[in-house]
Design a protein that fits this description.
single chain, mainly alpha, MetI-like fold, 2 domains
């Protein structure tokens, strides 16, 4: 019967076929849109969940730093204070000796950062461009410094700088078995950084190595033809081209040195040189000097101190964000 109808009315048959094809296309489009919507919704939920896990504590700290005593003991107040105050920041600023401590910290970490950039860039350039005995073995040692937890070597480091005696020189001069106690000073950090084993130095060497390997060798060959030596080529040509990696390492180094607690406690560095260590004694200082025994209230001052501590790092990242992301992409860290 259908065949007879198709023969008798071919136009209707063609129209029906077009309608069936349109229906199939609409169905495929609807299924595709449904899948896209479900995937987008799932992606949105995952991003929101991860963002909440990461930003939730920060939002809580920032919010509670503005809480007053009335807000703390008000069961209705959870995130937004009803009587916000800046007294928490004023007292934290005073007890932390904020300006002086911050300037000392910046001077300390900036000097370490500059040393790390110079040392790790030279080492990374050497691994990327020169062949020498035991090159692969030495680079493997660099990788080991990245993957081995620093806690596993904390005791040897402590004992080494507790009785610092390189090659037995101090014992030879003094005539007795001994050494120099470098603890409670910043010297151990500078010694480690100068010799390329400072905080995260292995990672920085790897970053520079990856970047220099990606630069064309024709740049150096042209410089050598023009009579430039290795040092001139490195400082005036290669290091200039490595600015994205320099900025990446500079931000990493500055932030990690700024937030360092492990080495500062291990070497007993004075808290006046590191604001991240100063914040650990803020509650005790306020409790003793201001006779404030309520830990709930002293915690509000701690929150204010934390906000003051992280503010310079946030400002640094906002200023250097574009260059930092470019450096990360070109350094081989991701991708």
């Amino acid at each position: 019967m259908k065949i007879l109808e198709m023969i008798k009315n071919p136009r209707a048959t063609v129209q029906n076929l077009k309608d069936d094809k349109q229906f199939a296309n609409d169905r495929k489009k609807a299924v595709h849109m449904s899948k896209t919507f479900v995937l987008s919704l799932l992606r949105f939920v995952i991003i929101v969940g991860i963002s909440y896990i990461i930003l939730g504590p920060i939002i809580t700290v920032v919010s509670r730093s503005f809480f007053s005593a009335e807000d703390v003991y008000n069961p209705v107040v959870y995130l937004f204070p009803q009587a916000p105050t800046l007294e928490n920041f004023k007292l934290s600023w005073l007890r932390m000796d904020y300006v002086k401590t911050l300037l000392n910290t910046l001077g300390y970490v900036l000097l370490l950062m500059l040393i790390q950039i110079m040392i790790t860039s030279m080492v990374g350039y050497g691994f990327a461009r020169f062949n020498f005995p035991f090159k692969k073995l030495l680079f493997a040692c660099v990788i080991i410094t990245i993957v081995v937890p620093t806690h596993t070597i904390m005791l040897p480091l402590y004992m080494y700088f507790r009785k610092f005696d390189p090659a037995g020189i101090v014992s030879l001069i003094q005539g007795v078995d001994g050494g120099i106690n470098l603890l409670a000073k910043r010297i151990p950090m500078f010694i480690m950084t100068i010799f390329g084993v400072g905080l995260r130095s292995g990672l920085y060497i790897y970053i520079f190595n990856q970047f220099f390997r990606g630069l064309p060798k024709e740049i150096e060959e042209a410089a050598f033809i023009d009579g430039a030596g290795p040092w001139y080529t490195y400082f005036r040509i290669m290091l200039v081209n490595a600015i994205p990696s320099v900025i990446t390492v500079a931000v990493f180094s500055l932030v990690w040195q700024y937030n360092d607690m492990f080495y500062s406690k291990l070497f007993l560095i004075d808290s006046k040189f590191l604001i991240s260590k100063k914040i650990t004694t803020l509650q005790a200082s306020i409790a003793n000097l201001d006779q404030l025994d309520d830990p709930t209230l002293t915690q509000l001052y701690l929150y204010a101190g934390i906000v003051l501590t992280i503010l310079p790092v946030v400002l640094l990242y906002v200023i250097l964000q574009r260059y930092f992301m470019e450096g990360v992409e070109r350094s081989g860290i991701v991708g």
